[in-house]
């Protein structure tokens, strides 16, 4: 009996079981991807737990660790609270393991299919939250790092790349738009998860608990159901499938690097090309600049404008406790506003890249982004809060747009058959950028302050440094050229094709979808309603900025 159950589960998760049948509507795939990305995107909003976790023992106020206590002691202590820098390592672990797991398991994903990868992602991400809940309950920081950071990070990597190659295969006519819809969900996950977690923690808080471990368990249960729904809704198109009336344009055309349909560069060969490493640098530099801004957005606004945010000509260091609290609320609204533009940019720029081409789109990111970074010090010196915010909102659209456009860029260069594996390895650039960007920004700002530079001007050199990073990225993007035809392989690898596909010679075409309109509408509503709720909450928070 156990062997029979395992066999049935294995066959249900196999790639062959996900090949679309007659009448399948490809528009079912984007909401399936959103079901997963909206859940794992909570990684961006994990800072909502930092403050409560610094009081997990003291409840009303933190109990600091004794002087001289080493890292090992802090990892296992049950008598004193954790500090923010220790908790911040969870965020670093997220993206280190996201990039590394995507690189390691990307090739496996192409063979196993998106359904199996989505299910494994659900077990890792939600299981990591459960382990973290145990770590909070027993107050063992090493268990929280292991659960959320390591195991959860692996779930992030698998969940992030699971829909990419599938969407690109279903939407060869709109690659950028398709990946933009899914990756938009990763940016939107925190927009939903952060306010939900805040409400859950307040609900579960008692005189003996800050409510974090209970919140982890509830989120794990909700996310697990949504992620399994998304994973089992995945379908892959039969080999040779194309949208009705669409004809692939082979070769490269102006502004758009392209390859013939059915051709691809194997992942190991692709990673040895200069094109891959140029795009690795392109992504790393774009993300380094953007993620550095995200990490310092709230304190930067507060320290540059100080009392001017309250209509008073007082520097930040001269504000009293009440004014600091008001300024902090405005800073939180600024962070929410940036999150909104980060999400919008993922869909807007990726969709626009279908018209402009990926290289031109990235060229805009680097040229316009570099100019905007260079203008930030000027806007700060003028005391123009609206202009300052507008500059960063535009910058964040291009940060998000870079994530959403890169999978389509890879497909244009290397073909679609192993783009998930190639994308997985490219995401190691994100892991590097997740360390490089914040380190550059934080240490340069700290150096400026220690050198006697006023806080209101201490970010100026940082902005010029980020503009320089984007200038280097522009040169890397400009150097990208089409991959030589000799590197391409024709058709699917036999291991990646079902029996039916091989029997049909790789030329299976689906009839037009018939019916299922209500089911499709309900599926889209299922992912749209949480997004709409998160959007409303974010707009309310952002309203404090101009209130």
Secondary-structure blueprint:
Layout: H1 2-13, H2 29-40, H3 50-53, H4 71-76, H5 84-112, H6 114-137, H7 141-161, H8 164-170, H9 175-204, H10 212-233, E1 263-264, H11 267-270, H12 274-305, H13 321-356, H14 358-382, H15 385-414, H16 419-426, H17 428-450, H18 460-478, E2 489-490, H19 499-503, H20 517-546
Antiparallel strand pairs: 1-2
Helix pairs in contact: 2-9, 2-10, 2-20, 5-7, 5-16, 5-17, 6-7, 6-10, 8-9, 9-10, 9-13, 9-15, 9-20, 12-13, 12-14, 12-15, 12-17, 12-18, 13-14, 13-15, 13-20, 14-15, 14-18, 15-16
Explain what you see.
By secondary structure, this protein is an all-alpha fold. It folds into two domains: 24-64 and 74-242 and 515-547, Growth Hormone, Chain: A (Up-down Bundle), CATH 1.20.1250.20; 253-492, Up-down Bundle (Growth Hormone, Chain: A), CATH 1.20.1250. The chain is 69% helix and 1% strand. It has helices at residues 2-13, 29-40, 50-53, 71-76, 84-112, 114-137, 141-161, 164-170, 175-204, 212-233, 267-270, 274-305, 321-356, 358-382, 385-414, 419-426, 428-450, 460-478, 499-503, 517-546, and strands at 263-264, 489-490. The longest helix has 36 residues, at 321-356. It starts with a helix and ends with a helix.
């Amino acid at each position: 009996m156990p062997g029979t159950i395992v066999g049935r589960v294995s066959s249900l998760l196999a790639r062959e079981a996900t090949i679309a049948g007659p009448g399948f509507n490809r528009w079912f795939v984007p909401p399936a991807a959103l079901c997963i990305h909206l859940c794992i995107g909570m990684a961006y909003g994990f800072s909502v737990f930092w403050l409560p976790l610094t009081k997990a023992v003291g409840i009303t106020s933190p109990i600091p660790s004794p002087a001289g206590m080493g890292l090992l002691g802090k990892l296992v202590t049950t008598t004193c609270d954790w500090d923010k820098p220790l908790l911040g390592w969870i965020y670093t672990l997220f993206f280190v393991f996201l990039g590394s797991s995507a690189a390691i398991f990307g090739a496996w994903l192409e063979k196993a299919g998106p359904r199996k990868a989505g299910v494994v992602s659900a077990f890792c991400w939600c299981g990591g939250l459960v382990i973290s809940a145990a770590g909070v309950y027993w107050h063992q920081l090493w268990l929280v790092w292991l659960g959320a950071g390591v195991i959860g990070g692996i779930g992030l990597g698998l969940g992030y790349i699971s829909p990419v190659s599938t969407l690109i295969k279903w939407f060869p006519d709109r690659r950028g738009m398709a990946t933009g819809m899914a990756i938009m969900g990763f940016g939107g996950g925190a927009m939903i998860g952060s306010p939900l977690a805040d409400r859950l923690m307040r609900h579960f808080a008692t005189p003996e608990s800050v409510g974090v471990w209970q919140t982890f368990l509830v989120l794990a249960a909700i996310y697990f159901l949504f992620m399994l729904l998304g994973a089992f809704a995945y379908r892959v198109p039969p080999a040779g499938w194309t949208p009705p009336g669409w004809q692939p344009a082979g070769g490269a055309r102006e502004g758009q690097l392209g390859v013939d349909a059915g051709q691809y560069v194997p992942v190991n060969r692709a990673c040895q090309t200069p094109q891959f490493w140029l795009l690795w640098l392109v992504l790393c530099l774009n993300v380094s600049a953007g993620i550095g801004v995200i990490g310092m957005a709230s304190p930067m606004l507060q320290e540059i404008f100080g009392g001017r945010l309250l209509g008073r000509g007082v520097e930040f260091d001269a504000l009293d406790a009440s004014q600091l609290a008001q300024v902090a609320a405005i800073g939180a609204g600024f962070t929410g506003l940036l999150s909104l533009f980060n999400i919008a940019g993922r869909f807007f720029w990726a969709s626009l890249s279908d018209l402009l081409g990926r290289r031109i789109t990235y060229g805009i990111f680097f040229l316009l982004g570099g100019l905007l970074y260079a203008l930030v010090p000027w806007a700060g010196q003028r005391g123009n809060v609206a202009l300052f915010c507008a500059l960063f909102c535009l910058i964040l659209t291009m940060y998000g747009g870079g994530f959403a456009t890169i999978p389509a860029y890879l497909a244009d260069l290397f073909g679609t058959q192993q783009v998930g594996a190639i994308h997985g390895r490219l995401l190691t650039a994100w892991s590097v950028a997740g360390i490089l960007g914040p380190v550059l920004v934080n240490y340069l700002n700290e150096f400026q302050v220690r050198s006697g530079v006023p806080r209101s001007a201490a970010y100026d050199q940082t902005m010029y440094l980020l503009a320089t990073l984007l200038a280097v990225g522009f040169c890397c993007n400009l150097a990208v050229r089409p991959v030589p035809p000799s590197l391409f392989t024709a058709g699917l690898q036999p291991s990646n094709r079902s029996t039916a596909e091989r029997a049909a010679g790789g030329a299976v075409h689906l009839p037009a979808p018939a019916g299922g309109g209500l089911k499709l509408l309900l599926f889209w509503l299922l992912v749209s309603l949480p997004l709409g709720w998160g959007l409303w909450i974010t707009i309310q928070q952002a309203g404090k900025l101009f209130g």
